[in-house]
Amino acid sequence: MAIDPRGEDSGASSAVPGRTVRFPGEPHDVTGARLAAEEFLGALAETVPPTAPECWHDIVLIVTELASNAVQFAPGPFELGLRPTFDGVHVTLHDTSAVMPAPRRFRPDTGSGGIGWYLIETLCTQVSVVPDGTGKEVHVFLPW
Questions:
Q1: Could you tell me how far CA 49 lies from the centroid of its own chain?
Q2: What burial class does residue 127 get, using C-beta atoms within 10 Å of its C-beta: 0-12 exposed, 13-18 middle, 19+ buried?
Q3: Are residues 69 and 33 in contact, defined by beta-carbon separation less than 8 angstroms?
Q4: DSSP H helical segments within 74-114, as ranges?
Q5: DSSP at 100
Q6: pLDDT tens digits, residue range 107-126?
Q7: Do residues 140 and 124 touch, judged by C-beta distance below 8 A?
Q8: SS3 for 137?
Q9: Are 143 and 126 in contact (CB under 8 A)?
Q10: Torsion-angle region of residue 49: left (phi > 0), alpha (psi -120 to 50) or beta?
Q11: What is the mean pLDDT of residues 56-72?
């Protein structure tokens, strides 16, 4: 059984393997990312039930936002990673844009969005963005 770096035994991380899914970056891939998250969470829930019902929905919402941002703002493919941690889920999304994400002004009258990054920063316990030579990787941690 794997041991968490913080010294706690992590039954979830040893029983449910992480998943990585690659997408070409088309609009319908946002749905594919949601479905991949749902499948991963279904397997995780069989081993470790969520601590609250909203945990499942929050993770699916964040995956949707990350995938949507990748499709809208980064040309080309993206890669979604999901893995259990000792107390939650670590989601990563690698895209091809080196531009760092930042909150935009929410303007509901224009339909141009602007709320996604606020949701990510609000619902996730940790958020980090790591640039690399081919784009960036967004890391978020959510409770489970």
A1: 19
A2: middle
A3: no
A4: none
A5: P
A6: 667 666 678 888 999 999 99
A7: yes
A8: strand
A9: no
A10: beta
A11: 96
